[in-house]
Specification:
By secondary structure, this protein is an alpha/beta fold. It has eleven helices and 17 strands. Strand 1 (6-11), helix 1 and strand 2 (58-63) form a beta-alpha-beta unit. Helix 6 (205-215) packs across helix 7. The chain starts with 5 loop residues before the first strand and ends in a 5-residue tail after the last helix. It comes from Persicobacter psychrovividus.
Amino acid sequence: MYSENNYVVIMAGGIGSRLWPFSSIKKPKQFMDVLGTGKSLLQQTYQRFLPVCPRKNIYIVTHESYEELVMEQIPEMDADQLLLEPHRRNTATCLAYACYKIAARNPLARIVAAPSDHTIFREDSFYRCIFSALDSVEERDTLMTIGLRPHGAETSFGYLQYIEGKDETIKKVKTFTEKPTKEMAELFVDSGDYVWNSGIFAWNAQSIVRALRKYLPEIAENFEDLRDVFFTDQESGQIKKAYSHCKNISIDYGLMEKADNVEVILGEFEWADLGSFQAIHEGNEEKEGTNSVKANAMLFDVEDSMIVSDDPDALIVAEGLENYVVALREKVVMIVKKGDERKFKKIFKAVKKATGNEFL
């Protein structure tokens, strides 16, 4: 149920390397209107959670270089609600910062943590799931994630295997598998006891702090002594010191896969992680035939492809392509086959190694 004790943490610090060059270091995907809705992914996520908790209880964690972008897109936020990271240290450190800060303000907090690059359909079902999760974790020492029934053998998502129990929607998690091979993903889908890990979490403030102390003590100790510093002028300087001592690790690898009190609540809503060209292509309802086109383009015998450009004066002419991405941004043109999302990160890293940040 809606409560003053409900809090939301939106993670918005990534650079979206799988969407490069459409997503850039200067303006990553969460600040872009990737589906042509008139709102960025961050704006959509922020507005989606307004019915869950008071506006003042929504916190956004992002890299310090994106402070201006966040305030431009969500000007109603107070400075205390924007948590600026001096270094990218992945989701474990990001959530430790946010949850320790929230716990310092409200020890009874019930917290939802979510990425900023998701799109949700059937929002009524989404809200029922979120409120059920918050109610369930209020007085129990449990760490909860939202799982969704797979409708395909996706290899870019994480999977959870659960143990059947009396509860129809909340299950104990048995195993985590992050981004399996195609063959493994097909086995998971056929088994019936695996779900996609949405990356949306719920817990109470005390449970997550206990878990961080137990499984990630080297991260937790950097925030333990900051309780009297949060919400003061000293916070920024102390956070810089804390982050310099924190390692780069995800909340899944560092905590959720190790803890013995992890549960999954099965969601009935429709969900898409817009972290790849494939996901955006599938989510675009305004396709030109089978193609997603966000550019001044002339296409001949092109099928199931995505054409994007940030230059309305540039003309892209393509012929004979099937299942390709053609992306133009500033001084970069990328032409690559859609498919295995891992290769996009490899391409990004290779360009960075060869040219630094000049084209990123």
